[in-house]
Design a protein that fits this description.
alpha+beta; 9 strands; disordered N terminus
């Protein structure tokens, strides 16, 4: 198998993770615009997410809902965390907007997605923050990403994955933001490359902002990641109070 084909298969596995970290992942049961507050919240979410002008050197395509995290994996993650729902599930009556899916490189070696969820109450966001910034998150993310990376197509292509490594990093956006870095080596017929996935979660008032950064064969730029998160945070401002 050619190197190009091998990398393409790897990217398929990586793309699964991209949508998986969206707050609305795999959940089409979203309430929408039934009140004036709902409408304002949805408008705010749509205006706040990353836009093509934020990543002018990336290609922007419509977010692919079909590649989002399955209900089985969401349930497995929630069980690992010891909770009924996680930030991968949609809060009832929340208003959500997904950014376009951004990609860069001849083989889409870099990818960025974001979502903004405006919850009915600040308590909903507070609970999500408490859980996702808690002690269990790193080990549960390690398990989740390990499951994602064992995609059948990758196995058929003869790709072997190394162990998943997860660590926390400082984001520095607002007073509640956290980042998790996940990495794993993937060995195909032609070469071994490093897969890097950064997940950033930022909350403010009733808003939860999620960012997903994917790199294979390239190094994450966490200064640039924080800068993009800050853009969305500033757009939300105090409008979700």
């Amino acid at each position: 198998m050619s190197r190009t084909r091998s990398l393409s298969v790897l990217f398929v596995a990586l793309a699964l993770v991209a949508a998986a970290c969206s707050s609305g992942s795999g959940n089409s049961d979203k309430s929408g615009g039934s009140t004036a507050t709902d409408s304002a919240d949805l408008t705010l979410a749509k205006q706040a997410v990353l836009r093509p002008s934020d990543l002018s050197d990336y290609k922007a395509t419509t977010h692919i809902v079909g590649s989002e995290l399955s209900s089985t994996l969401r349930r497995t993650f929630a069980q690992c965390m010891g909770v009924d729902t996680t930030i991968f599930d949609t809060v009832p009556n929340a208003q959500i907007a997904n950014s376009p899916d951004f990609s860069k490189g001849q083989q889409n070696q870099q990818q960025v997605t974001s979502s903004v969820e405006i919850d009915p109450t600040a308590a909903d966001v507070d609970q999500g923050w408490k859980d996702f910034s808690g002690a269990k998150t790193q080990s549960c993310l390690k398990d989740l990403f390990g499951r994602l990376y064992t995609a059948a197509n990758a196995a058929k292509a003869g790709i072997k994955y190394g162990p998943v490594h997860v660590s926390e990093f400082n984001v520095g956006v607002g007073d509640r933001s956290i980042g998790y870095a996940m990495s794993r080596a993937a060995t195909g017929p032609a070469q071994t490359i490093e897969l890097d996935v950064d997940v950033i979660y930022v909350v403010h008032d009733r808003a939860g902002m999620e960012f997903n950064f994917f790199n294979y064969g390239t190094n994450p730029d966490r200064t640039a990641e924080a800068r993009l998160a800050q853009k969305v945070y500033d757009r939300v401002g105090d409008k979700a109070a």
